[in-house]
Fold SET1A methyltransferase.
Amino acid sequence: QVVADMREKRYAQQGIGSSYLFRVDHDTIIDATKCGNLARFINHCCTPNCYAKVITIEAQKKIVIYSKQPIGVNEEITYDYKFPIEDTKIPCLCRTESCRGTLN
């Protein structure tokens, strides 16, 4: 967590507007900000059509995105980021009927 916090601060200082950090478990966070596949751009939604799951393959943890329903051509792929509750709120822009209003 300490390294992830330092990276977020450094990215902000460098003018990088978004960071792509994914918590795998208590001790591991994957940083796809500067290097990663297109899945790093999957947006949050309060009523997502996918979910993320961490699985272990040959002693390596992997993030897998599973569909919850059929996804049409040109339909955006989304999942719930499940950010922890914090005092400083991040606004949610998903605009679904059951939008919680914030990501955290």
